[in-house]
Amino acid sequence: MYLAKGLGVGSFGDGMGGCRGGGGGGGGDHSSMGSGGNDGDMHGVEEYYKKMVEESPGDPLFLRNYAQFLYQCKHDLKGAEEYYSRAILADPKDGEVLSQYGKLVWELHHDEERASSYFERAAQASPEDSHVHAAYASFLWDTEEGEDGCNESQCLPSHYHLGAIAN
Hints:
By secondary structure, the chain is an all-alpha fold. The chain has a domain at 53-144: Serine Threonine Protein Phosphatase 5, Tetratricopeptide repeat (Alpha Horseshoe). Helices cover 62% and strands 0% of the residues. It contains eight helices and no strands. It has helices at 2-6, 38-55, 60-73, 77-90, 95-109, 112-125, 130-148, 152-155. Helix 3 packs antiparallel against helix 4 (77-90), helix 5 runs parallel beside helix 7 (130-148) and helix 6 runs antiparallel to helix 7 (130-148). The longest helix is centred in the C-terminal third of the chain and has 19 residues, at 130-148. This is TmcB/TmcC TPR repeats domain-containing protein.
C-alpha cells in the first residue's frame, strides 16, 4: 500500500486533499490541472486504478477508491456511479461506500427516496462511523430545506429586515 499511496491511493479517506494533481483537493478548480504537469499525475493515478480494477474486478477497495477518484477528482459522476454500485455489490455492508453512493445519488438524480435508503443502510452498517452519520445528517438537512417551501425573506419574522441596517 505504500507504493500505491505515492500515487495518491489511500488519501481519499477523509474526503479532503485526495486529488493529488487535481488542482486543490477535491474542489472543482480545473484551471490549474494543466499547469505544472499535474494532469499527468492524475492520469497516472487513473491508469493505476484502471489496472487494479481490471486485475481484481470484484475487489471492493479498488472499486471504491476508483469511484472516489472519479467523483472527487475527475468529477465524472456517471463513472463514479458505476464503480460505487459495483463496490456495493462486492461489499454490501460497507457503510462508507453506501453513504458515498447515497450522496452521489442525491447529487446526480435528486432521488430523495433512493438516496435516503442508501444513507439508512449506511447508518445501520456502520453505527459507530461519525463520517457516515455526518453525511446522513447533511443529506437530511439539505432535503428538509427543500420541504420548507419558503425563502429567507418569507420565513423571517416581519420585524426582521434584510439588507443594510437603518440609522
